[in-house]
């Protein structure tokens, strides 16, 4: 299968400072409605969402402070101060601390943050926050924000995450571009597959090749948002190991008769795509073809059911009805899909216990899976954006059995 090199859209491949100001403005309205003078946000993706500051999250606390007027300030270790000025010049100088756990200052960073919050908001009776304190990572230990600030802290991560669930046209354009490159990367991987192919080597080699092509095509329009990972990525697992929904790589090479469960995605402007396919090395057996057909019918049902105004759980119910009709329910291990964007999984979920209303602008994966012990797994995943009348598939890689059979 030959793959055409995407030419890329002429649209900007990044968000603007105004986009971030608008986000903080919408959060400010929520804070006003709920009676909070400020919100402290610790989650790295939430910080980036509100400010445009992308960073390597370590043991050193980072937080965004957003007031009920929409003003934004970053709280960072001193080593990140110049990084903030480069990425977010409109925010002004950040509030800094010397180092974690104190850098000789004798003061834990969270105590520095608490002191700054009391200074900025002396009349506050309570603060909103996405989390009660900085997340424990890389050895971090520290007080809760409530203790550090000397104020009640009410956790409301939904203030940010509910807004993140509805993607703007600019965000959708970035995800659409990412889908182009996920499709392209997957095609390179499929071309490279042959008997004896090593999972890890083929995955990494085609990821690097796709990234080189992507950067050559997009040039300076591509703006990296991380210091690790590649802009285009591929992977696959093979054989009976595919019966594990999140199976790890194995040593050894691809063999005739193997089932492959693959994945590929692009990253553009800090936003991801999602693409997964079930493939076969040589002609599938009747049993393999049966479960492939059942999975494909379930994914078709999920795509058709994804419509605005419906609760998430109804999509799952319709997909399960198809799986039940094919006798597949004993082999189902997870729900139909999830939202995503800046992170690989985001709220809400296409799950029996998620009543969230589906709304235009939401981005979902549709990925029902069937996992037969001793045989293998069967899962396609596609990126869809909810429209005013239904949903549009943004990942356009072939889904049919013939296109996904590797000749031997």
Describe the structure.
This is Cobalt dependent X-Pro dipeptidase. InterPro entries: Creatin/AminoP/Spt16_N, Creatinase/aminopeptidase-like, Creatinase_N, Pept_M24, Peptidase_M24B. Residues 174-388 form the Peptidase M24 domain. Residues 23-98 form the Creatinase N-terminal domain. The chain has 2 domains: 17-163, Creatine Amidinohydrolase, Chain A, domain 1, CATH 3.40.350; 167-406, Alpha-Beta Complex (Creatine Amidinohydrolase), CATH 3.90.230. The protein is of the alpha+beta class and 408 residues long. The strands form 5 sheets. Strands 4-3-2-1-5-6 form a 6-stranded mixed beta sheet, sandwiched between helices. Strands 7, 8, 9, 10 and 18 form a 5-stranded mixed beta sheet that branches. It has helices spanning 17-34, 44-51, 81-87, 109-120, 145-149, 158-165, 169-192, 199-218, 286-305, 312-325; strands at 38-41, 63-67, 72-77, 95-97, 127-129, 153-155, 232-238, 259-268, 271-272, 275-281, 337-339, 346-350, 363-366, 369-372, 376-379, 382-386, 391-393, 405-406.
SS-derived structural category: alpha+beta
Strand order of the largest sheet: 4-3-2-1-5-6
What is the CATH topology of the largest domain? Answer: Creatine Amidinohydrolase
User: Given the structure, what is the number of helices?
Assistant: 10
Q: Whole-number radius of gyration?
A: 23 Å
Rounded mean pLDDT is 95
- The amount of beta strand, in percent, is 15-25%
């Amino acid at each position: 299968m030959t793959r055409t090199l995407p030419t890329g859209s002429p649209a900007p491949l990044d968000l603007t400072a105004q986009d971030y100001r608008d986000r903080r403005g919408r959060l400010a309205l929520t804070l006003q409605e709920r009676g909070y003078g400020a919100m402290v946000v610790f989650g790295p993706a939430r910080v980036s969402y509100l400010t445009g500051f992308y960073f390597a999250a370590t043991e050193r606390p980072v937080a965004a402070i957003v007031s009920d007027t929409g003003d934004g300030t970053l709280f960072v270790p001193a080593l990140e101060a110049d990084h903030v000025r480069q990425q977010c010049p409109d925010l002004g100088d950040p509030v800094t601390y010397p180092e974690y756990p104190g850098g000789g200052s004798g003061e834990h960073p969270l105590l520095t943050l608490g002191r700054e919050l009391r200074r900025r908001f002396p009349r506050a009776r309570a603060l909103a926050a996405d989390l009660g304190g900085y997340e424990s990572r890389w050895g971090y230990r520290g007080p809760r924000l409530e203790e550090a600030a000397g104020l009640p802290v009410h956790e409301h991560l939904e203030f940010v995450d509910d807004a993140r669930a509805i993607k703007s046209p600019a965000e959708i354009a970035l995800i659409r571009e990412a889908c182009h490159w996920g499709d392209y990367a997957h095609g390179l991987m499929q071309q490279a597959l042959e008997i004896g192919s090593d999972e890890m080597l083929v995955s990494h080699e085609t990821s690097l090749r796709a990234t080189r092509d992507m950067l050559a095509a997009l040039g300076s329009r591509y703006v990296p948002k991380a210091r690790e990972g590649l802009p285009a990525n591929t992977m696959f697992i093979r054989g009976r190991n595919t019966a594990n929904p999140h199976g790890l790589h194995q040593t050894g090479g691809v063999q005739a008769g193997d089932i492959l469960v693959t994945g590929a995605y692009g990253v553009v402007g800090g936003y991801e795509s999602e693409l997964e396919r079930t493939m076969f090395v040589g002609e599938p057996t009747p049993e393999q073809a049966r479960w492939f057909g059942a999975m494909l019918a379930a994914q078709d049902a999920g795509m058709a059911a994804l419509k605005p105004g419906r609760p998430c759980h109804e999509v799952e119910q319709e997909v399960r009805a198809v799986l039940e009709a094919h006798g597949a329910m004993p082999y189902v291990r997870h729900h139909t899909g999830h939202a995503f964007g800046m992170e690989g999984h985001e709220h809400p979920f296409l799950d029996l216990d998620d009543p969230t209303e589906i709304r235009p602008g939401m981005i979902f994966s549709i990925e029902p899976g069937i996992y037969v012990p001793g045989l293998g797994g069967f899962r396609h995943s596609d990126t869809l954006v909810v429209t005013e009348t239904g949903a549009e598939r943004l990942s356009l890689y072939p889904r049919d059995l013939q296109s996904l059979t590797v000749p031997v």
